[in-house]
Amino acid sequence: MENTQRTQSLSTFMKISIAILTVVTLASISLLFIGDFEGKFERVFSTVTLFAIFVLLTAFDTRKDQKNEWYAPVALIANAYILGLILIVIWVTPFNQIALPFIILWKSLFVIATTRIVTFGLELLLAVGEGKPESLGRWGQVTGILGVITLILFTAPVGIEAFSVYIPQIYWKIAVAALILTALGLAITLLLNWYYKPASQPVYPASAHDSSPYPTEPSPGVQPQSVEPVGSETTTGLLPWPTFADGTPYPQLPNGQPDFSVVQK
Fold first, then answer.
1. What is the pLDDT of residue 209?
2. In this structure, are residues 83 and 120 in contact, taking their beta carbons and an 8 Å threshold?
3. What gap in Å lies between CA 141 and CA 129, rounded to an integer?
């Protein structure tokens, strides 16, 4: 039953990924009529490479050991965002025979690396509160949302600039403020996670009583059931506690051994 559900989940993941790839491909065709068609070799080669990367990311996400059920939809959205944003960069960036390949390369690497790092971080943040107090889970969710907002604010200009649109300074101030809030949320989440971490039980060394060849001293008023001569060993490997002729046990030293000095008195 579990294997069947897992197969169905992976099939759904793959179907949605293929649908996204198809839709974005059709959208990229429309960019042919919007962007600059010069440099078609660089743009077509970059598009094919991007599709290959999308396939590899999708294959990785389907095989990855997911820490929670939220990873699959988050990964789908992240991969679709990467695909759409980089296609805009590829087909809308103005042509420059020397600079175009480098612009496409560094912007693509920036978007892919940043988005995937945030995706993995979001997965950990959503799983950090499992089995722990609700406050920790809430802070993890809030920090994850702030991280996604920060990601969009810093990566969206990569596509916006392709349309030769000026981005005002206030935009970058908002982006930096979101980044600082994300760092604050992450710090609080880590502190709460450390605070609620179960404390390890201390391990105490064996005491002197454990190494004693004699059992502990009998309780006052309790006579031993049998008296065996000193020097013989019982079936447990411990020597019987020595007693006086009337059955009274010898006094015990602080190290757990019998006090034989009373015999000399």
1. 46
2. no
3. 9
Look at the alpha carbons of 96, 102, 108, 114 in this order and tell me if their dihedral is positive or negative. Answer: negative
Which backbone phi and psi does 150 adopt, to 5 degrees? -65, -40
User: What tens digit of pLDDT does each residue of 164-203 get?
Assistant: 888 999 999 999 999 999 999 999 999 988 888 765 444 4
Give the pLDDT of residue 150: 97
Q: Are 61 and 72 in contact (CB under 8 A)?
A: yes
Helix (H) or strand (E) holding 68: none
What are the residues whose beta carbons fall under 8 Å from the beta carbon of 228, sequence distance 6 or more? Answer: 234, 240
| Residues contacting residue 9 through CB under 8 Å, at least 6 positions apart | 72
pLDDT at 177: 97
162: exposed, middle or buried (Cβ count in 10 Å: 0-12, 13-18, 19+)? buried
Q: Which segments in the chain show pLDDT lower than 50?
A: 1-10, 200-210, 219, 221-235
State how far the Cα of 29 lies from the Cα of 47, in Å rounded to an integer. Answer: 11
Of residues 101, 98, 99, 96, the one with CA closest to residue 42: 101
Angle between helices 134-160 and 99-127 (to 10 degrees): 170
